Amino acid sequence: MRTFWTTAELLALGRSEREIRTAVRTGTLHAVRKGHLAVPGAAADVVRAVRIGGVATATTAARAVGLWVPPDPVPAGRDTFGRQRDRAQRLHVAVPATASRLRDPDDPHRPLIPSAAVVVHWTEPDALAGSGPARLAPPLVALRHAFLSLPPEHALAVLDSALHHRFLRTRDLHALAAALPAHLRPVVFAADGRAESGIETIARHLLRLLGLRVEPQVEIAGLGHVDLLVEGRLIVELDGREWHDDQDAFEEDRRRDLVGAARRYRTLRFSWYRVLFRWHEVEAAVLAALAD
């Protein structure tokens, strides 16, 4: 079901201004900003992006379509009104370069005040022509903005997820790379749609930067697929969940470790938290295991 409309689109379909006002009054539609409406249940952050005067992009758009996204928190501190910020995620909005009168994402009566909580990506109007009724930047545009606003390994994880879930094709990588600064192009071509989680992508990329040979989703007899195989002898498994909530899964992990050891593989397991926030510990453990 379509979630966003403009007044002009509804009038073109034969709805009268009176019918539109009635729909807003009864809650069938919600007024987002002047001339823009949304159905109930529309994704909150996409609504906020439209209220500003653009469309969702980067991690905001990726999250809306179910891709893996890294933490992208608003820096700690106070907002433009002096209120203490919580650890909400940054809002990314793509705005046509010709746009004016940008509004606050939560109050259409206020102008947008520059804030660390909102990342405005000024974009060529033609590039946003494919945003459509979902009010999401086209995939290549959203990914370009991700690469321009996130650490490279985090943006690569979003790109891997887009490939894995078929929002993007491998042949599209050349167009994405061409739209980015030269130093980011090799990161784009490091994409691998086999990755099953963003944590796997981040670990793979950072380990390769150490000069290590890393292969994702390798099948080993008796084990099935392992997340990463480093230098052909070290298995690295990554837990994308915040905790193990399944005793059977926990026991299966231990079984796999024993089978790997019997086949002369060593296994290291790391949580999402270690990969994202304590990488130096992961790096040290991998290098020590390879040195044995």
Number of helices: 12
Report, as a whole number of angstroms, the end-to-end distance.
Answer: 57 Å
| Residues in β-strands, percent | 15-25%
Number of extended strands: 12
Q: What attributes does this structure have?
A:
20% strand, 292 residues, 12 helices, Endonuclease, Chain A, alpha+beta, four-stranded mixed β-sheet
Question: What can you see in these coordinates?
Answer:
There is one protein chain. Helix 5 runs antiparallel to helix 6 and helix 6 (152-164) crosses helix 9. The protein has helices at residues 7-12, 17-26, 44-52, 58-64, 139-149, 152-164, 173-178, 185-188, 198-209, 247-262, 272-277, 279-291; strands at residues 4-6, 30-33, 36-38, 55-56, 91-96, 103-104, 107-111, 118-123, 214-220, 224-230, 234-239, 266-271. It contains twelve helices and twelve strands. The protein is an alpha+beta fold and 292 residues long. Helices cover 39% and strands 20% of the residues. Among the domains are: 43-149, no CATH class; 198-291, VSR Endonuclease (Endonuclease, Chain A), CATH 3.40.960.10. A four-stranded mixed β-sheet has the order 9-10-11-12, sandwiched between helices. Strands 1-3-2 form a three-stranded antiparallel β-sheet, with helices on both faces. The model is unreliable at 78-85 (pLDDT under 50). The N and C termini lie far apart (57 Å).
